[in-house]
Amino acid sequence: xxxxxxxxxxxxxxxxxxxxxxxxxxxxxxxxxxxxxxxxxxxxxxxxxxxxxxxxxxxxxxxxxxxxxxxxxxxxxxxxxxxxxxxxxxxxxxxxxxxxxxxxxxxxxxxxxxxxxxxxxxxxxxxxxxxxxxxxxxxxxxxxxxxxxxxxxxxxxxxxxxxxxxxxxxxxxxxxxxxxxxxxxxxxxxxxxxxxxxxxxxxxxxxxxxxxxxxxxxxxxxxxxxxxxxxxxxxxxxxxxxxxxxxxxxxxxxxx
Length: 256
Description:
Substrate binds at residues 49, 136, 148. The chain is of the alpha/beta class.
């Protein structure tokens, strides 16, 4: 029997504190859950944000004003730091991880896509956890993903994943602003439901990250329509991934 495959995307807001600094215990909790799934013969691909924030932690403010060039610099410097974090934590669990960088054009039909498939299949066959991220150093304009949610969706489709779990800093999709007493969390959404009407701009900054709930709904519906069950859930909850895989009513589940 083929092993179950899932893609887990962790956003910048999950792994940072109010000062926009990487929170180590959050990464450790994430890896702990992935290690538990690995013991259950569930293959996981991790799509991780955080490189730009990690780079900014190292460099502080820089003289470059152009937003695109700033992102290239911060991400280039931050990528090795993020991988050092993950390598160390996975090593503590006796596991190995690998970095897979990509631009949007790598998913277009052709040799690049075939190479991507071969890379993921080879890593998974060896029990190595692929950690995917956008190749921010060279990914600009047309080769950029809208955000890492889109990258996670494309990876899920590429590897034939059973599920995609998008971890954010909210418990899921609500019928209003999550802080409003009258708002209710939607436990399940079908792709033809008009839930976009519930999205409200909170006005919160997202540091160096991209994407918001409106983007997540779009990606979740698109992915679910490809028969990949998709979840939006709070990545700061201790056992969120394990709870979802156990079928508990955690987050918002998107299905066909």
